[in-house]
Amino acid sequence: MRYVLPALTLLIVAGCGGGNESANFTELHTDPACDITAGPCVATGDDGLRIELQLPPAPVALKPIEVKVRTAGARVEAPVLDLSMIGMDMGDNRYRLLAQGDDAWRATVVLPICIQDRADWNADVTFSARGGRYRARFPFSTGG
Ligand SMILES: [Cu+2]
């Protein structure tokens, strides 16, 4: 037990920290002032790559949320939406985005309930384009 505990603590800290899984993708630029619960937000790349994410106005846990994504500037493949809570491991909340024509995608997602009244989330859209992987990160909050 003496040796197991420190190892466990390390694991939990690594899981909570987030953001350290800097895999092999290029990060798109988002406007930190854009509130995704007030309207669509846009992420852009240096080379005309553009992702627009749209959530419903007041997303709440345990209710289906319609998420819409629009892409431009490149042929986008296999986009995935990954919802993670900042500072708390809420399990795997990954959704494949389904194509709605050439440059439109959507997914119906359900956020897990959180023990906190207010929860801060990252909505990450990762996808393949031009032979590489890209990620667009959109922060948003639920609750009070
Ligand atoms: Cu939580």
Compact description:
With 144 residues, the chain is mainly beta. It has one helix at 4-17, and strands spanning 26-27, 29-30, 41-44, 50-54, 64-72, 77-85, 94-96, 98-99, 104-110, 119-129, 132-142. The chain has a single domain (23-142), classed as Sandwich (Immunoglobulin-like), CATH 2.60.40.
Radius of gyration: 16 Å
CATH T-level fold name: Immunoglobulin-like
Strand order of the largest sheet: 2-3-4-5-9-8
Relevant CATH superfamily: Immunoglobulins
Please give the largest β-sheet.
Answer: 6 strands, antiparallel
Helix percentage: under 10%
Secondary-structure element series: HEEEEEEEEEEE
Extract low-pLDDT stretches: 1-20
Number of domains: 1
Describe the overall structure.
The chain has 144 residues and is mainly beta. The chain has a single domain, classed as Immunoglobulins (Immunoglobulin-like, Sandwich). Helix content is 10%, strand content 45%. It contains 1 helix and 11 strands. A 6-stranded antiparallel β-sheet has the order 2-3-4-5-9-8, with no helix packed on it. β8 (98-99) and β9 form a beta hairpin. The longest helix is centred in the N-terminal third of the chain and has 14 residues, at 4-17. The chain is globular and about 40 Å long. The chain binds copper (II) ion.
